[in-house]
Amino acid sequence: MSNSVKQALSVNPTSPLERAADLDATLASVAADPGESEQKFLRFRLGQDTALLAVDVITQVLKIASSEILPVPQMPGCVLGLYNWRGEMLWLVDLDQFLGLPQALSTVEAWATRMVITVQIRNQVLGLVVPQVNDIEPHEIRQIQPATAALFPSRLLPFIQGYLTESGSAVLDVVAIARAPLWQTCHR
Questions:
Q1: What is the per-residue pLDDT across 97-151, written as a single tens digit (0 to 9) for each?
Q2: Domains (ranges, CATH) in the chain?
Q3: Residue closest to 133 by CA, chosen among 113, 110, 112, 116
Q4: Residue 163 in contact with residue 147, Cβ under 8 Å?
Q5: How far apart are CA 95 and CA 171, in angstroms?
Q6: DSSP structure string for 84-124
Q7: Binning pLDDT at 50, 70 and 90, where does residue 36 land?
Q8: Dihedral (CA of 4, 23, 60, 119) sign
Q9: For residue 104, what pLDDT is reported?
Q10: What separation in angstroms does the CA of 41 have from each of 26, 98, 144, 149, 182?
Q11: 55: DSSP letter
């Protein structure tokens, strides 16, 4: 792992905002240099486990205060609301709740601030709220195998691109998440 990645993901950053900014810069640098047989992934907490997203669909990782989220009435419970991101409104979804997983956020501190993985698919930008962002990891593409009902609950399968054979971690399919019927309601 490069020193910049280690520094961006250090356990004792100067401040949470600086850590998010460092991680954002690191994401931009690793996404710009993918290997042909290797791909970079961001590992984050999902439910009681961890999952992965390809860094090439990640625009930014933010740490925002819950007070900065504008709730939107009559939305599903997983939609936390809107956030002013770069002068545009960013829909925020609690990824655990969206996928029907147990809530991992349990402390007052965790609810006070949120980690948001901003992803972009075509012209759609979404904020995926997760309890914790861990690390950027390279993995051989051949290590990713198709997800099966024997390994994952059936409600998750439409949103899983595959899983890593060495760790069993799910690789989420951001396109499937962005195409979920939930977003048709939000973008009307």
A1: 999 887 655 544 556 788 999 999 888 899 999 999 999 999 999 999 999 888 8
A2: 3-186 (2.40.50.180)
A3: 116
A4: yes
A5: 14
A6: EETTEEEEEEEHHHHTTPPP---SHHHHHEEEEEEEEETTE
A7: low
A8: positive
A9: 58
A10: 12, 21, 12, 23, 25
A11: G
